Every structure is written in structure tokens, then in C-alpha cells.
Amino acid sequence: MSDTKTEIFKESSRGLKFFKKLIRRKLTLIGLIICAFCLLLVIFAPLIMPYDPNHIDVSITLEPPNSAHWMGTDELGRDILSRLIAGTKISITVVISTVIIGMVLGTTLGLIGGYYRGKTDLIISNILDAMWSFPTLVLALAITAVLGAGLVNIIIAISIVYSPSYGRLVRSTVLLIRESDYVEGAIAVGLNNFEIITRYVLPNTYSCIIVQASLNAAHAVIAEASLSFLGVGIQPPQASWGVLLKTGFNYLHKAPWYSIFAGIAIFLLALGLNFIGDGFRDALDVRLKDV
Amino acid sequence: MFRQVIIRVLSVIPLLFTISVLLFILILLLPGDAGDAILAETGTEEDIARIRTGLGLSRPFYIQYADWLINFTKGNWGNSFLTNQSVFIKFTERLPVTLELALISMFFATLFAIPSGVMAAVNRNTIWDNLNGVLTVIGVSMPAFWLGMLLILLLSIKLGILPASGYLPFFLDPIQNIKSLIMPAFCIGFSYAATLSRQTRSAMLDVLSEDYIVTARVKGVSEKVVIWKHAFRNAIIPIITIFALKVGRLIGNTVVIETIFVLPGISRAIVDGVLGRDYPVVMAFTLALATFIVFVNMTVDIIYIFIDPRISINRKID
Amino acid sequence: MREKEVLLDVENLNVAFYYERLLTQVIFDVSFQVNKGEVLGIVGESGCGKSVTVKSIIKILPFLHAEIQSRKILFEGRDIVNFSQKEFLNIRGKKISMIFQDPMTSLNPVFTCGNQVMEAISIHNKSLSKKEVYEKSIEMLRKVKIPNPELSHRLYPHELSGGMKQRVMIAIALSCNPSMLIADEPTTALDPTIQAQIIDLIKQLKYEFSTSVIYITHNLGVAAEICDRIIVMYAGQIIEQAPIREFFANPTHPYSKGLMKAMPHMEEKKERLNIIPGNVPSFFHLPNGCRFHPRCPYRQTRCTEEMPELSTVAEEHFYRCHFQGGEK
Fold first, then answer.
1. Which of C221, C168, C178, C228 has its CA nearest to residue C203?
2. Which of A51, B15, C35, C259 could form a disulfide with A79 if both were Cys (CB 3.0 to 4.6 A apart)?
3. Beta pairing, strands C66-75 & C6-19
4. What is the distance between the alpha carbons of residues B146 and B151, in angstroms, rounded to a whole number?
5. Residue C17 forms contact with A (CB below 8 Å)
């Protein structure tokens, strides 16, 4: 048993070695490139977009991809490529904010429950388990029923829905760490709880939090798309990938490229994030025995 | 052993309690009088009168909660805001659809995922493993409803062999029933299978690196028996856990899939309810689904107790 | 004089592993023989290749990652070097058995102990009925001195102590009366009192079943108790080989001498324990010439350039050193 505990502590921050190990897998590299590409799209959007995403031109509605419009036009004659680029901003925003908020919320709860145990833990773990018992999209829907539609509300909803994934993970890790000699020593030396948590307990949760975060990031992209598709997320005429997918679905027989391109965008970003998540998991995996 | 089963069953109670409380809080937070209206349905005549006059409910929260919960367990789920139909009856009408969809998806997903995961683990780093890896990561990243759109595009619009929407119960027209469910079940099953396959592979890799596998080989056990009797029997334990864990995600996928394929299921009713502000439906169905998931997890934990001797038996003999 | 019949004859065994696409050799030209009825000890520090050597003979290394070459490996007169995995199924468990160091993890946790013994019997005795298999398994459990075998038969591994688990392992290994047993540090993970019991058990069963034994250990004291002949390995090579009495009377290689000195004796009064300075070399950075020279108190220039061959110092006593362990 003590072997597992000391193994956790051997994983102190070896940043450079870790990064190198991360890059080694080709797929992870591809994932990083995809995400970097999306970030670039967001930053340089005004420069890259060939057209104004909101410019309506009813003379060229639902045109297939051509030299003027590489991805065709939508039902109001707007350039789909420009709208997709504009939608990148929303997707990235959703990913970053839901991951951060969910991480903070979940980790805090998990930390408190796992460290203090007793009645606090009973209540916290019960709440986390209860939240996790709802199917994710259904709970998100129920929350948006309460809060209403729109970007901010779905960010809140998605963050809340995924916080238990961090919380339960952190809690079980903390429960394990708490038993280790390292922490007992810190208590014996006289460090107070806050110092113990921030200096010894928390750093050892970083690796599993990161893996979970990258996986949840992929889910967040799909969740935003789903909620917008269902009509409770981003509302048209704002351009999000989910909105494009939704309108595209109505014209599936006339203009299939509409949905196809929107879906490719969602798929690629989720894929890239999953590659990164896999890369993190492999790089941080202590138990990978080769021979 | 049975003592542990009973403990696990009882542990469901505080969980259900918390779930119902969380949902109750959501009901209270609903905009306008909607929350009050839901609770009034399960309340007293006096409450209904007060709602009509815009005075809001009078009884303290915990009594409202108790009433609402008791009514829920009795099947009194109120009436739909839109159709005034009994929510409970609506649930029973829609349940078979979602259930059939979920079961078919899970069945075929498991059928493919487990052998492929085992093969990927056994043939690690060969072409089978890499192929499996590519397929599973696609399955996990691809939004199920986009896959649905692509399938509709190909099979309904271009080729016309499967219907893009509509549903008939099995006993009315079995062929049409199956036809209408193939694409939806595939979409849901694909991502579920992807997750399951990865977990199977991971669990098998863990087990195959254990010492007792070497012991089995040294005994002269053939490789096939080593894999399926010695290794798989151990790997099945974490696999079953994942199986249950992902049921929640599976149901989440039914939400959008039912919408795309216009299937009259529970999840689509929730979506319609959110859009149409039919809150009794939303809240009651959500609570039902959550309860269902709790029972699925409980069942899996109980199975766990029976198949892992380390959990149930705890004596030590020298 | 007892006639010596060779049971296992290994000639020029070389093993290399793929470590992250790089092929690294770990066993270099190892040759030895095991005679019928004798216990051959293989002694050396962790990482010198003792386990790898025996595991490659019965091919239970992860074979995707290992390259095994040998001029010949004769077992009971047949060359098993190029045997396929399928052919080995007839050998493992039936003619050659192996027990391992850690009994805690060597038994399958989801099957009862009795079940696992029965499996060992029924694989190689397909004609026996279930009842006969069961009875044989009880008999084996009794032979390894497990009290109340009928009860233990029904227990799961986690319900037994370490010593009991190791007895079950021995029962499994000897159930088909193999001609050779390989014991890979079977007592290292056990309490000293249990260690002694298990060693006695192995000795006794060796007589009862006439099994030859390859006994791997890093403990010279244990080797002295049970082995007839001894091989010392270092960095993938055999550096000394002798009958056990001869070895203890006259350890020739400087490494062997160091090992002997490092053993604490009750009679001596010492302030500090003797150690061999330095560390075992990594297989990625093996020293030139004699592998032991960085740690050897008698090294000369020739040792840093030229790999010594095996020389004879007495009957059946070989060592690998240019200078007869510093005597010359």
C-alpha cells in the first residue's frame, strides 16, 4: 500500500520532461495543433473572415461551395465559412470557461470533502453523487429551463453539470493522499490545514485534474452544440456551431454541406481535445509498464 | 455477503433524497409562478386558489417538499401545462420508446465493444490495436447527432432505405419498428461502444500485466484460456463499473437523437417541455431518469459484490 | 558414485530486449547444466539477469519484446530452443514448473486456491474425472503441509497468509510431478521463520518427487542450505560456477569474495558491515573489458580492456577473471 503513496509523490513537477513526453505521441501533437489553430482563428478572426458573418444577401441563398464562398451560403445568403469562424469564438469561450468554472467548483468541493471527512464529507459526496446521477444533457436542460437560454446560461449549466466529475476524482485522490506518511509528517510538524492542503495535497491532484479537464473540454464542445441545436443555447442570428448545425438540419436535403461543415468543425475540435487528453493521460501514467 | 447487499440497497435512500431535494430547489427557482404552480398541483385546494389570485403558496418549504415527494412516489405527477394530460400517463406512453432505443444501443454496443477491446489489449501496438484506437477516439469525439445527420443524408435522403423519422410500436409493425430504430441506435451505440472498448482495453492491459497471469502461463494454460478465463474474469470487474457509469451519457445522447429522428420518447418530451415551458413534464421526467440511473448503479454495485470475492469475503486464515 | 545424468543443457544463451525501439542485450553467452536430482543455485544481485535467464528457457518472457538466441537448449535430450508456444504448453506445468517471489500477487484473486490447483492437474491429465482431480488436489495440499486442506481448498487467495499462499504455489507447481522446478526467490517476500519452513518443504519435496531444482536467490545463506551447485551471475554473465562446498571454501572471483565478506556472521564483532562499493552497471552503459572492474579492488589495466573468459581453478569450478581473483 505504501508503494502507491510514495509513487504519487514522485510525480513532483518535472515540467520539461513531461512536456517532452507529451509531444512524443503524434496524435497528441495533432491535437495541440488543432487547438492552436482554433485559438488563432479566434484571435485573427476579423482578418481571416472573407465576409461579414451577418451580411445578408437573399440573392445567393443556399449556394453550394464555390470559388466565392468556399463553404457555400446559408438560408439568408450569409457566408458559411465566415459564420463558422465566428462560431469558433463561442466554442472556445464555452470550453475555457466551463472547464475553469467546473474545475474550481468541483475541486474545491472534492478537496473539502476528502480532507475534512466526517459529516462534511458525507454531505459533499452525497451532493456530488446526486448531481452525477442525472444524465448530463438532461440536467443541463433542466438548469436552462430555470435560467433561460443564451451563452452565459449554458456556460453556467455545463459548468455545474460537469463539476462532480472533478469533485469525485479529487475527493478520492485526496482521501488516498491524506493517509500517506508525507501528510502525517506535515501534521506532526505543525503545519496548519491550509498550508497542508495547498502545499502537499493539492499539487498531487493536478495530474488527474488535467486529464479530466481535457476530456471535459471535449464534452463541453459537444454539449454547447447539443444545447444550441436543441434551441436552448445560443440563439440565432448569432453564429455558433450548434446553431449552424441546427439550421443546416432543416435544409439537409437541399444543402447538405451546411450541416456537414458545421459538424466537421465540432468533430475536429472535440477530436483534438480528446487527443490532448489521451496524451496527458499517457504522459502522467505511472503504471505503464513496457517490459 | 448479503449484509453488504442490504447496505448498498439502503445507501440508495440518502442519494434519492438529495436528488429530489436538488430538483425541488430547481422547481422553486423556476421563473414566475411556474414553480408554485407545479407544487400547487400536488397541494391543497387552498394553494390552487391562492395561485389563481397570485398570492403564492403558503405552507413552509419542507411540507411542500414532502407533499410533492409523496405524490411523486404515488404516481401523481401533476398535469402538463400545455395539454393538461397526466404527466405520469405521458411518461408511461413514452417510456417504451426510449427503453427500446437504449436497450438496442447498449446490446449491440456491448457485443462489439468488449471483444474489440480485448483484442486490442491482447494485440497491443499492432495494427488491430491502432485501428481500434482510431475508431474509438472518433466514436468518442463525434457528436452523435451529427453522425445521425450524416446517416440520414446517406440512408434516407440519398438511398431512401431507412426512414428519417417516425416510430411504430413493435407489436404493431415489427419491421417498421426496427427500421425506425436502426439509425438512432447506431448513433447512440457507436459512442457508447467507443467508450466501452477503450475501458475494456485499459482494464485488460492492467490485468495482463499482473503476476497471476504469468503463473497461469507457467502452469501450461493455453493463451486463449489465459485471456478469457484468467484475465477477462478479472477485467470484467472494472468494465462493469464503467458500463453503468456511462448509462447516464447514453441517456444524454437519447435527448438529441430522439429530437433528430422525431421519436416520441422521454428525452424528447423533456426538450419539448423546456422549449414550451411545460415544467411539470421537465421536472418529473428528469427526476424519473435520475432515479433510474441511481438504480442502475446500485444494481451494478450489487453485481460487483457477487463477482469480486475480495469484497464480499473478508476472513484471514493463517 | 552417483551417475550424473544431464537434465537441462543450456549452451550460449543470449537474450535482448526491445526498450523503446532499441534492442538491448541483457544475457550474454550463458551456458550451464542441471543434472538430475540436484539443486542448482543461481545467485546474484537484483538486475543481473537470473530471472530473465530461466524465463527465457521456458519462453515466458513477453515475447513481442524479447529476442532469444541460443546454440542449443537440451531438455531431457530434446532441443527446445525453437519450440513453438504450442509445444511449450506440453512442457510448462508438466515437465518444468516455476514458483515466484511474491505469493501475494501470484495467485488469481477470483478463483479459489483449490480451483487453481485443480486446474494445474486437469490441464495435463485430461482423462481424470472431476472427482479424481479434486482428490489429487487435496492430496497435494496435504503434501505441502497445509492444515485442513479441505477447508483451504474452498478459500480465496486473499484469505490466506503469505506462507500459506506460497505453499499453494508449490502444490500447483509439483502437482504434475515435473522433472524440474524453477524457484525464483520463493522466500524473499516472506518472514524469516516462514522462510525456513518453505525451504525445508522444498528440500523434502525434492526428495519425495526426485525433482531437480533451479533455485534463484540473492541470499548466500539460503543457497548454502539448499543448493548442490552454485552459479554466480553479474551483469548478464556467469562469473563463477562451482559445487557448493568448493564455492564456500574457495570463492575465486572478486565479486564472489565480496559477497561472502558481505554476509554478516554471528561470531564476528563488527562495527560496520562489509559492502561491495559501487553499483551494478546499467545494461545501457556496460563497462569495457571485465564488467566488474569498476568495483574490483584488484583491477589492472588488462581488466579495463579485455573481457576475461572462463578459467578453471579446480574440478568443475570455473571463474571469469584475468587474475584468479587477485591471487596471482
1. C228
2. A51
3. antiparallel
4. 9
5. yes
Which residues are within 8 A (CB) of B103 and not within 5 positions of it... i.e. 6 or more apart? none
Residue of A132, A224, A114 whose CA lies nearest to A174: A114
All residue ranges of chain A with pLDDT < 70 are 1-24, 285-291
Each residue's pLDDT tens digit, C19-34: 777 888 889 999 999 9
Pairing state between β C96-99 and C180-184: parallel
Q: Is some CB atom of chain B closer than 8 A to the CB atom of A60?
A: no
Q: Which residue has the cell 521456458?
A: C58
d(CA C203, CA C206): 5
User: Whose grid coordinates read 410500436?
Assistant: B169
Alpha-carbon span C204 to C200, nearest angstrom: 6
Residue C190 cell numbers, joined: 516472506
Residues of A in contact with B183 (CB under 8 A): none
Tell the residue number behind the cell numbers 538430475, with chain if given: C36
Residues of B in contact with A84 (CB under 8 A): none
Shortest distance, CA B131 to any CA of chain C (angstroms) = 19
Of C33, C32, B267, nearest to A137 by C-alpha is B267
> A249-289, pLDDT tens digit by residue?
888 888 888 889 889 999 999 999 988 888 888 777 654 43
Q: What is the edge-to-edge ordering of all strands in the sheet holding C66-75?
A: C22-35, C6-19, C66-75, C78-79
| CA-CA-CA-CA torsion sign (C103, C105, C111, C116) | negative
From residue B256, give the alpha-carbon distance in Å to each of A12, A87, A138, A222.
Answer: 43, 20, 10, 11
DSSP characters for C245-284? HHHHH---SHHHHHHHHHS--SS---SS-----S-PPPTT
Closest CB from A129, A146, A263 relative to B29: A146
Q: Is the CB of residue A290 less than 8 Å away from at least one CB of chain C?
A: yes
Q: Return the DSSP state at A73.
A: B
Indicate whether this complex's ipTM tops 0.85.
no
How far are the Cα atoms of A100, A126, A136, A162, B21 from residue A130, in angstroms, in the given order? 22, 6, 12, 12, 10
- CA C62 – CA B268 distance, rounded (Å): 51
Q: Write b or e for each residue in A213-247: b if 16 or more Cβ atoms lie within 10 A of its Cβ, otherwise e.
A: bbbbbbbbbbbbbbbbbbbbbbeeebbbbbbbbbb
| Cell reading at B168 | 411504430
SS in 3 state form for C174-215? HCCCCCEEEEECCCCCCCHHHHHHHHHHHHHHHHHHCCEEEE
Taking CA–CA distances from B288, the nearest residue in chain A reads A134
C-alpha cell at B206: 492492467
Nearest to B211 among C100, C110, C160 (CB): C100
Q: What strands, in cross-sheet order, belong to the sheet with C180-184?
A: C96-99, C180-184, C212-217, C39-43, C229-234, C237-243, C317-320, C310-314
Whether A206 and chain B come into contact, CB under 8 Å, resolves to no
CB-based contact B187:B148 (threshold 8 Å)? yes
Which of these, C271, C244, C245, C239, lies nearest to C258 by C-alpha position? C239
**Closest CA relative to residue C226, chosen from C176, C181, C189, C273:** C181
Determine the straight-line distance between the first and last CA of chain B, rounded to whole angstroms: 22
Cβ pair C281, C239 in contact under 8 A:
no
Cell of C168: 499453494
C-alpha cell at B250: 447514453
Q: pLDDT tens per residue, chain B (318 residues)?
A: 788 888 889 989 999 999 988 988 888 888 766 667 677 666 666 666 666 665 556 667 777 788 788 888 888 787 777 777 888 888 888 898 898 999 999 999 999 999 999 999 998 878 888 889 889 989 988 888 899 999 988 888 888 888 878 777 777 778 888 888 888 999 999 989 999 999 999 899 989 988 999 999 999 898 899 999 999 999 998 888 888 878 888 888 899 999 998 899 999 999 888 888 888 888 889 999 999 999 988 998 888 888 888 876 655 544
